[in-house]
Design a protein that fits this description.
GO terms for molecular function: hydrolase activity; metal ion binding. With 379 residues, the chain is α/β, with parallel strands linked by helices. It is built from eight helices and 16 strands. It folds into two domains: 257 residues, Zn peptidases (Aminopeptidase), CATH 3.40.630.10; 115 residues, 2-Layer Sandwich (Alpha-Beta Plaits), CATH 3.30.70. The longest helix is centred in the C-terminal third of the chain and has 21 residues. The chain starts with a helix and ends with a helix.
């Protein structure tokens, strides 16, 4: 188990990571810091630069056995942190407001324990993923030939609004799939006194917005669940003398399943295309922040549940699945995976709030849970 010195050092590390956050795909200092600490722990193998800035370390047992992966995320958010913390972000407009700094310390804490007592069998992989926040990091790591196969994969996410000592877990969907759709409508401008001479997207927008919103239905967890959120609109330029000739619509699409997402994409594009054609407009699309549904494997979930109870957590499936997305879902294509949400405090600000800070006293329970899983599978 962790010593008091371990906990103090991991707490100091988390606060240091919090002071120096890095955005998705630019986690160079964070990755270098993690890799250096893993070298100091004597990891049997160490890879860097996987899928960008990803880091992977192996702690091997003497006997054949399963390969078990534990994941943490390296990136922070493009949000200005509120004043007040002594370890407040030093990077303007960037902050660890999702708790990834704490997740890193949970996996590194497991590395400390493994460095003192190797697995008896198999191998434990400690994986540090870049670019979780924009949904691109897991796919990039999976596409990298350096990433080995694994039998099981596990991750935690802190869950503010839920008391510490409580946890949320279920087999099946844990987080919804989502994607950002940006549609550009292009026509032709004219003088504001002669709007009939323009090909303007004004009426197209008026038709598109209610039709997109009408696609929303059901509740998370239902196969038919759909949610469309309009996140940004723009049209023309800020001038009174010009009838606009172009517009952009940004919308986030959300479903419980990847199959549902494929259908929702086609429906959303059809609505925009039909409205554009009716009014003589060209249209093109691009897609960003593409997250697969995060689905817990039943066998991995059962193992996670046993370890969580052994670590003292009280489990429930209330509030699941979450509408928010998680890039961990893509690792389910490689092995049996499960994620658990650990209570970060009932009165703590929500994730992505300007005053959110991962609770330091959740580090040790995270390590205890991970270690219990590692011991169950690799001895």
């Amino acid at each position: 188990m962790l010593t008091n010195a371990d906990i103090a050092e991991l707490t100091d590390l988390r606060r240091d990571l919090h002071r120096y956050p890095e955005l998705s795909g630019s986690e160079h200092r964070t990755a270098a810091r993690v890799a250096g600490l893993l070298r100091d722990l004597g990891a049997d193998e160490l890879w860097t630069g996987i899928g960008g800035t990803g880091v992977l370390a192996a702690f091997r047992g003497a006997e054949p056995g399963p390969s078990v992966m534990f994941r943490a995320e390296l990136d922070a958010l493009p949000i200005t942190e509120a004043d007040g913390l002594p370890h407040r972000s030093t990077v303007p407009g960037v902050a660890h407001l999702c708790g990834h700094d704490g997740h890193i310390c949970g996996v590194l804490g497991l590395g400390r324990l493994l460095s003192r007592q190797r697995p008896q069998r198999g191998v434990v992989w400690l994986l540090f993923q870049p670019a979780e926040e924009d949904g691109s990091g897991a796919a990039a790591m999976l596409a990298d030939a350096q990433l080995p196969a694994f039998d099981y994969g596990f991750a935690i996410h802190n869950y503010p609004g839920l008391a510490q000592g409580q946890a949320r877990l279920q087999a099946g969907v844990m987080n919804c799939a989502s994607v950002g759709m940006r549609a550009r409508l292009t026509g032709a401008t004219a003088h504001a006194s002669e709007p009939e001479k323009a090909r303007t997207p004004t009426l197209a927008l008026a038709a598109i917005l209610p039709a997109l919103l009408a696609l929303s239905r059901g509740s998370p967890g239902e196969a038919a669940y759909r949610l469309v959120t309009i996140t940004h609109l723009s049209m023309g330029v800020p001038a009174f003398g010009i009838t606009p000739g172009e517009a952009e619509i940004w919308a986030t699409l959300r479903t419980s399943t990847d199959e549902g997402m494929a259908d929702l994409r086609q429906q959303a594009m059809g609505i925009v295309r039909d409205a554009a054609v009716d009014r003589g407009l060209a249209v093109d699309f691009d897609w960003q922040d593409d997250f697969a549904a995060s689905v817990n494997d039943p066998q991995a979930t059962a193992l996670m549940g046993e370890a969580a109870r052994a670590a003292g957590f009280q489990l429930s499936d209330a509030d699941l699945p979450l509408r928010a997305s998680e890039d961990f879902g893509r690792f389910g294509s490689r092995g049996r995976c499960a994620m658990i949400f650990l209570g970060a405090g009932a009165d703590r600000p929500p994730l992505h709030a300007q005053d959110y800070d991962f609770p330091d006293d959740l580090i040790a329970p995270s390590v205890t849970l991970f270690h219990a899983l590692a011991r169950r599978l690799t001895g």
